[in-house]
Amino acid sequence: MAPSLAPPKAPSDDESVDLECGLSSIQHKLTRREMERDLVLAFDSPELRRHDAWFLVETKWLDAWMNYVLDEDDQNITRPGPLRNDTLFDREEFRVRENLQSTKDYRGVNPQVYALYAELYGTDDAKPIVRWTLDIYAVPVMIDDVREMLHVPKLKARSLVTEMNEELEEKGRGLEGLRKREEKESWTYRCLCRCEFLVPCLYRLLGGGPTYKKEKKSSWGDCCNCCKRKKKNSRKKKGKKSKRRKEEEDSSEEETSSDEETHGLLA
């Protein structure tokens, strides 16, 4: 089983606002080591899924990888080499070395973690050591089963590592462009042209007072005018209703008179 790593610290606020110039400055960015650590920890597990087996990795290599991803000193970083397992398997005699102990000499990882290690660092054409248990001297897993176990994890690891590399390249390009732009822009240009607090500050200094607008209070005269308008509108509505009623009454009288005339003629 792979050694457990401490979870990454909760990141602080990535962006802080410079109140003097109103510019945002990035304080912390994920490095390659941190991204590798988070990627492996996302798939590391103490147990296996059904039909999976343990891929045995030498403890020496895992310790080197942990020192690489957990080291905070950027100057003294040594990246581990390919995942060869030379201390576990003798290539000349083509057999497992003798007197190997679990945890001391080797550890087990699941197929997805092994595929990530192989994609990140390569294997130098070394065959994986796969067992159904954490005993290196147990019956080895058949090569066809190993290929089937690694088929999907290899594809997934390739896509994840490619995505991580592309993200790192984009961040590098963005940082280079930001540095070039900051070198070209002078301090006066940044303060006069890109500062969002410049106009309000000048307005206050020149005696303009606060930049917000005061709400206009309603007076008694405004209330009276509103009441008058409402009364006029109500009168207009009443007048229209009365006209409609008169028209309806006139039309009904005409209809009754025409009916009486026709009735008299028929009689």
Automatic annotation (TrEMBL):
Keyword match Glycosyltransferase: no
SUPFAM superfamilies named in the record: DUSP-like
Record region (Disordered): 211-267
Alphabetic keyword roster: Hydrolase
Top-level taxon of the source organism: Eukaryota
Start-end of Acidic residues biased regions: 249-259
Amino acid composition bias (Basic residues), ranges on this chain: 227-244
GO molecular function: cysteine-type deubiquitinase activity
Domain DUSP: 27-134
Keyword hit for Transit peptide: no
Stated name of the protein: Ubiquitin carboxyl-terminal hydrolase 11
Organism: Phytophthora citrophthora
